[in-house]
Write a structure and sequence with these properties.
This is DNA ligase. This protein is an alpha+beta fold. Helix content is 44%, strand content 16%. The structure holds 3 DNA strands.
DNA sequence: GTATACTAATTGC
DNA sequence: CTCAGACGCATTCGG
DNA sequence: CCGAATGCGTCTGAGGCAATTAGTATAC
């Protein structure tokens, strides 16, 4: 009913005093531990098993887990910590969620001063209110005064809180609390804070990147702490995260003098500067800047600073949650002094979250939204920030489905339509009122300079009375001579920057499927039926340059099945299925995955490719896969040379349980050097294995590979073949490694792909393929 | 000094 | 891009 | 009738291949 929940409000109001909270949490843990531990034995499921297994450690260490976290290096501890987190969350669930709920009712009688509970809440509320402008605050330890820059430590403390829970409402809560305080104390820092939470430095469409990777970070950490790159690398394997390694290296190090504490704006400015270093010696300058920041870090700051630089905060906080927190925080901060009923606040927050999400999906720029929000409040925001040609909007995405029956179940009794899913690059085409044309990618990067050929043709696709528009399309590599679609791999060879019309080697055809804005009006709230009519009425196809996506308004399985097969036969990936009327607006904020996609490889036993491959190596896992192998190297068997040829790595498709089992199993088959009959090209795994097990693996396509060696010499003289989107299906215990898929089979599968065989046929006959029409 | 080869980073799917 | 896990929410099931 | 179980959608973070680009190191 409402996305805002009472525990959120309660814990927010009650969270005024950090020390009280902490104490309470500990009490909860102590009280809950024993009953929880005993009941867990009767329960099944992995989660429960983990709890049981680690019960003892949990009892001993739960109270000083933060201390442990920063000081303990061993792998075992890290894993325990991971599991402990689950247990803590379990306890939280019992305490934090039940207790506030029981007080909910008293919140309802807002003015009832007789109730003991409600007086408690008032006290809590009062404490929260005193945050602002006084020393007695949640953030008092950080010496943060109104009007002054937000200390980086405050942000990192919030990150730590967030990282230590998996509860989404709680995460949202921690961030909201911080944002409210910032709005009240240092509103100028709100924008920077939000960017740091999201690990970004500017709107996506501005395209500024950090240009920092692991290698440079290792160098910087090494120089800042006096450690060798090699020892840092071994630590990463143990700790699974460069941020943790930096934290460790830093805490072991004694600093001679204390630099001024970091602030949020200073860190943000530092990141932006790093991003803007270019040209000769820029890497050295980046390293020096990082070193400077690192040296100024205190407490847990190195961990989060380094993770920010890595581009992955990995604390369970991302865009959607940040947006919700912004909405919640702005309402709460606007109503701090007012006494509004719980219901009233709740509904205002729900509405604000909806508003923020929808505004952001139409105009994904915090640079614009946040200042407008601070200045004008949430009420007038949608009149200031709205869909504008020239600024990309968040694209609608599709939900994968496993079968056509699933599609029919979901869209039962609704009118829907099926479209070809072309294998190319998403292209959002904008024409501004002033005539300027731009193209944006799925991630809102500006592609105008990549596709000058498309930009040039944009004015010709619209009918005369059209002044401005935004279209949603797919750009697909196109063979002009034979009038057929080329593989994605061909498209990706196009230059990306400073493309001159003259040096375009790969032609593209644009397949349009939606119209989001037309002649000064946004169409996103209209039904897809209406939008598609607008598209078809206002634009004209040009052969080989601009076409509408092929579609059929079928509604029975047979028809759709035929259309699906036809799409694959026409070199497409499968179908997109969209409702025409009900719930068919283009509002990614509502449901970003409102469309369904049926890809040929999803359908089990169907057209999709599945291979039986041998495991010959592995890579150490990072993050939540620390302590197990995060990915494996697979090979096919070559009869001719009696060797195993690498075909791909694989890192998805297995459950946590399987992942652990694989790790256990393959630890018994480690070999120190690769066998002479392993041919792996540049795919060097961290650990080599004896060829003992066969895995069934599924993929979407096969491609010519610059690294892997499968079927080398059969399709390409020097290059092998690899798999696109590989995923683990199951262990094939019935097969020995010699019975794995062979190189010949791999080569055959490659050649049998429609898009390959069609093009081979076309280039051999030199004529137009008659079966191929648009 | 300039051309070339290599590596790391980013981005598409 | 694929996939699994955790969470939150809604609905159904069973004592 | 209420709490437990179940099912579904969303969100997040693990992991994949292959291409260009930018910066650096090396060779001539």
């Amino acid at each position: 009913m409402s996305s805002f929940h009472q525990p959120t409000l309660f814990s927010f109001l009650n969270g005024g005093n950090k020390k009280n909270n902490k104490k309470k949490d500990n009490e909860c843990n102590n009280n809950e531990k024993k009953p929880n531990a005993t009941t867990s034995k009767e329960e099944t499921g992995l989660k429960r098993k983990i709890i049981d297994k680690n019960k003892e450690e949990e009892l001993n260490e739960s109270n000083n887990k933060n201390v442990k976290k920063t000081n303990d290096t061993s792998l075992k501890e890290e894993i325990n910590l991971k599991k402990r987190k689950i247990i803590n969350d379990d306890n939280e669930e019992k305490e934090v969620f039940k207790k506030p709920k029981s007080t909910d009712t008293s919140m309802d009688i807002d003015e009832n001063t007789n109730s003991q509970d409600s007086t408690k809440i008032k006290k809590a509320e009062k404490k929260t209110l005193t945050i602002f402008g006084s020393q007695d605050s949640e953030y008092q330890d950080f010496n943060w005064k109104a009007g002054e820059p937000v200390p980086y430590a405050v942000l990192c403390k919030t990150f730590e809180n967030i990282e230590n829970t998996t509860k989404r409402i709680k995460i949202q809560d921690y961030l909201t609390k911080l944002l409210v305080a910032i709005i009240k104390l240092s509103p100028n820092n709100l924008l920077e804070t939000i960017y740091l939470c999201l690990n970004r430095i500017c709107p996506e469409y501005e395209g500024l990147e950090l240009g920092i990777g692991e290698t440079i970070l290792i160098k910087a950490i090494g120089e800042a702490t006096g450690r060798s790159a090699k020892s840092i690398k071994t630590d990463i394997e143990k700790q699974g995260d460069l941020g943790n390694v930096a934290q460790m290296s830093k805490s072991n190090q004694k600093t001679l003098f204390k630099p001024k504490p970091l602030t949020v704006p200073a860190v943000f400015k530092g990141l932006k500067e790093i991003a803007m270093f270019t040209g000769n010696q820029s890497q050295t300058r980046k390293i020096n800047k990082i070193k400077g920041l690192l040296i100024a870090c205190n407490g847990n700051e190195p961990k989060y600073l380094i993770r920010s630089l890595e581009g992955k905060l990995r604390i369970g906080l991302a865009e959607q949650t940040v947006l919700m927190s912004i909405g919640q925080a702005i309402v709460l901060s606007e109503n701090m002094e007012k006494r509004k009923s719980k219901e009233r606040l709740e509904s205002e927050i729900t509405k604000a979250i909806e508003t923020i999400k929808s505004i952001y999906s139409e105009l994904p720029s915090y640079d614009i939204i946040i200042p407008a929000l601070l200045e004008n409040g949430i009420q007038n925001l949608s009149s200031i920030c709205k869909l504008t040609p020239g600024i990309p909007l968040k694209p609608m995405l599709a939900h994968p489905t496993k079968s056509l029956t699933e599609v029919l179940n979901r869209f039962e009794n609704l009118t829907f339509t099926c479209e070809y899913k072309y294998d190319g690059e998403r292209a959002q085409i904008h024409k501004l009122e002033n005539g300027e044309c731009r193209i944006y990618s799925r991630n809102m990067e500006n592609l105008s300079n990549k596709y000058p050929d498309i930009v040039e043709r944009i004015p010709r696709i619209a009918k005369n009375d059209v002044t401005s528009f935004v279209l949603d399309c797919e750009a697909v590599a196109w063979d002009k001579e034979n009038k057929c679609i080329l593989p994605f791999q061909v498209l990706s060879t196009r230059k990306r920057k400073n493309v001159e019309a003259g040096d375009i080697s790969v032609q593209v055809c644009v397949f349009a499927f939606d119209c989001l804005y037309l002649n000064g009006k946004s169409l996103i709230k209209k039904t897809f039926k209406e939008r598609r009519e607008a598209l078809h009425n206002s634009f004209t196809p040009i052969e080989g340059e601009f076409t509408f996506a092929k579609n059929v308004n079928a509604n029975n399985v047979d028809e759709i099945q035929t259309f699906l097969e036809q799409s694959v036969n026409d070199s497409c990936e499968g179908l997109m299925i969209k409702t025409l009327e009900v719930d068919s607006s283009y509002e990614p904020s509502k449901r970003s995955r409102n469309w369904l996609k049926v890809k040929k490889d999803y359908i089990s036993g169907g057209i999709g490719d599945s291979l039986d491959l041998v495991v010959i190596g592995a890579y150490t896992g990072r993050g939540k896969r620390t302590g197990s192998y995060g990915g494996y190297l697979l090979a096919c068997y070559d009869n001719e040379n009696e060797e195993y040829q690498s075909i791909c790595k694989i890192g998805t498709g297995f459950s946590d349980e399987q992942l652990e089992k694989h790790t256990e199993f393959f630890k018994q088959h480690i070999i120190t050097k690769p066998k002479p009959y392993y041919r792996v090209g540049d795919a060097k795994p961290d650990i080599w294995f004896d060829a003992v097990q066969v895995w069934e693996v599924k993929c979407a396509d096969l491609s010519i590979s610059p690294v892997h060696q499968a079927a080398v010499g059969l399709v390409d003289p020097v290059k092998g073949i690899s798999l696109r989107f590989p995923r683990f299906l199951r262990i094939r215990d019935d097969k020995t490694p010699e019975m794995a898929t062979t190189s010949e089979q791999v080569a055959d599968m490659y050649n049998q792909q429609v898009v390959i065989s069609k093009n081979n046929a076309a280039s051999q006959s030199g004529g137009v393929d008659d079966d191929f029409e648009y």
